[in-house]
Amino acid sequence: VAAPRRRASDDPVESIKASILDHLTHTFARDTAGATPRDWFLATAMSARDHLTSRLIKTQSAHNDQNVRRLYYLSLEYLMGRLLISSLQNAGVYDHTRQALEELGVDWEALRASEDDMGLGNGGLGRLAACFIDSLATLDLPAIGYGINYEFGLFRQAFENGHQVENPDSWMIYGTPWELMHPEYQQEVQIYGEVENVFDDSGNYRPQWVNTHKLVGVPNDIPVPGYGTETVNILRLWTSHATEPLDLNAFNEGGYVEAVRNKATSETISKVLYPNDKTENGKELRLVQQYFFVACSLKDIIRRHMRVEGNGWHNFADKVAVQLNDTHPAIAVAELLRILIDEESLDWDEAWAIITKTFAYTNHTLLPEALEKWGVPLYARVLPRHLQLIYEINRRHLETVAAKWPGDNEMLSTCSIVEEGGGKQLRMAHLAVVGSHAVNGVAALHTELLKKDLFPYFDTLFPGKFRNKTNGITPRRWLLDCNPALSALITKTLGRPDWPRNLDLLQALGKEADQPAFQQEFMAIKRVNKVALAETIQELCGIEVSPDALFDVQIKRLHEYKRQHLNLLHIVALYRRLLQNPDLDMVPRVFVFAAKAAPGYDLAKNIIRAINVIGARINHDERIQGKLKVAFLPNYRVTLAEKIIPAADLSEQISTAGKEASGTGNMKLALNGALTIGTLDGANVEIGEEVGDDNIFIFGMTVEEVEAVRNAGYRPYDFYYADEELRAVIDWIGSDYFTPGERHAFAPLHHSLLDGGDPYMVLADFRSYSDAHLAVDAAYRDSPRWAKMAIMNTARVGKFSSDRTIREYAEDIWNLPPVPVK
Ligand code: 26Y
After folding, report:
1. Which of 135, 150, 672, 692 has a CB 3.0–4.6 Å from the CB of 806, allowing a cystine?
2. What residues have CB less than 8 Å from 65, skipping those under 6 apart?
3. Whose CA is nearest to atom 17 of ligand 1?
4. pLDDT digits (tens, 9 = 90+) for 160-214
5. 562 is known as an active-site residue
6. Structural domains in the chain?
């Protein structure tokens, strides 16, 4: 039945009902009888959006009217996940909307399941950006996130015969209700071409960037509402278009395909997210993506500033702070320099002062293969003027290096932005450090290693530039929204509902950790969440698991340094122990994995296959009486994380010490009452400090020990021969036992562990890891003890709220005061 036009109602539930029905009818042309869950989702999302857009307008006017200082967050990735629940929660209409839908007889679960994830990121770095923009809005900080509106997000993963297969993620093929397109703010930018050496009348060098290719960026805005506040910031994502949709000449001559070729090429730029998150492979399109979004964003920032300030370069850096999310947007340093010098005719020193006051850079990795470098010939072709400017930045930079260390040529080449030898390459991390006033690592240990190992001379050259900002996660999505039962218990226990804005309040749960009644409530919620995950495992993997088993979870990108294969060795060892002693007294375990491997990363894909195939064998072996189960859930993404995390008992954070910059999944799992088994790496160190030694299982070598063993010449065979069980497990995996008829199926894995030199020292840490698991087993048998430990984890990880992280950035790096709205 068609709904009448919406009428204002005093009853919030009635007015939401009216709004949803109104959108169903007038926005989507559906009647209630024929509406699919997706139609209901769209109508509900539009109704939520109505709440947000009026607040968005109010927020932006407040910021504009007061001409406030703003933070601009530049990131190639935003891993947002679904937006419905968080939008409703942050708009303060979640409960009323649920009730409205119930009264309308709509199936809520089906409705919410019909929203595709907005998966515009690879992993930790992209999800961090999403948590940060949530916190920025919640803290009333004036901020805009800039990025790319990829038509295809991270690939969708399926398994065939245990192998990963990738499918395109066409998340917006039927449109998305959250984006507001703003063609009036489109920007034209240029790329390619060449530099003409021109001199003006006074003989000054005035280079001209000519014969360029023009592109248009059209912004799509996503509203970003804060929780418990009026602020609604925006996430502005650029879509690329051609300046001319059609080549009329070609068209008139009958070249129909030729006529739209330019359009197709231009639109390719925002087509697809690169699925690599460690090795940069120097692809031209990726460089074009970086420059396109940086150039559009800077133009937009300058437009906003000049609208108020006229020709106000003098106070640009007072009003504008730009944070570079890793080096991916680091070309912004050269692009702003080009604008200031070539277009605005500022002199070098003036321009450079503005730049270094404006930019700050966050580093997310120490792994050498993940540090971005671009070949000079590629740069010369794509961004010829920028290359000249980078050379000049470098010349001046090397002057300061030479002044500090006179006569030291080695120091010059170490600190240079341009790497000589072989093909010349541009080191983007060096450009970002030189062009920024602050550089930060993402956990205390990471920042120390950054100063010591990655940029040792820069820390001496620029004292005070390097800071730590330990990562955080938004407690809205990662507790309030994903674990409603635990959230209700927390609100009841604390006697106040405002803990999602002040996560330190959870400390008070510590007082209940010894209380049997509270322990039972806490663990009963965990069990309900485990039952739900068990159903999901059944659905997605066809594996039956018992919610009474210990749920042992490793969920993260698949990488050698994260050591999913260490976990696998332990599983195979347990399997072997059970076969040798079927009565072995052990807590039944369900090992849960979820992970995507970069499509070109063969070893990572081999590890996925090994876990799948060996897992299947274990799952079907009746001899072990269901004591071990292995489930690798396909297509890991934010939505799946929201399902797994509330159900986890044990959180695997087992990277080789010194390799994981921070980790953020470790924080999400601890917040939801999972205990960590982990190395002293990344933020695990700080999690351990917060929860206390009694409430975490630490194992393995420290950074110093890793270094010492490596310096002494690490030989995996030493550990292989010294440990009978380890040797048997590796031999077993290397045999064709798990893949009858298919020999050497796991040769890449087997090779990596032994003849490949075991670069991440899996063998060296194996025994210590296995022993830590024995301690886990013992703790889990003692239910009150385990409950207490789990509660202590939830109670003591308030530090890891991204609100704390963002407050530190705002105070220490951005100098950014909050601006309350109304
Ligand atoms: C250069 C390109 C190939 C590239 C693309 C994406 C390189 C790296 C990345 C993503 C890196 C990433 O996600 N790093 C993770 O950042 C998290 C947030 O700071 C950390 O918690 C995590 O330890 C780190 O691996």
Report:
1. 135
2. none
3. 124
4. 999 999 999 999 998 899 999 999 999 999 999 999 999 988 888 889 999 999 9
5. yes
6. 67-82+117-470+808-814 (3.40.50.2000), 475-546+638-800 (3.40.50.2000)
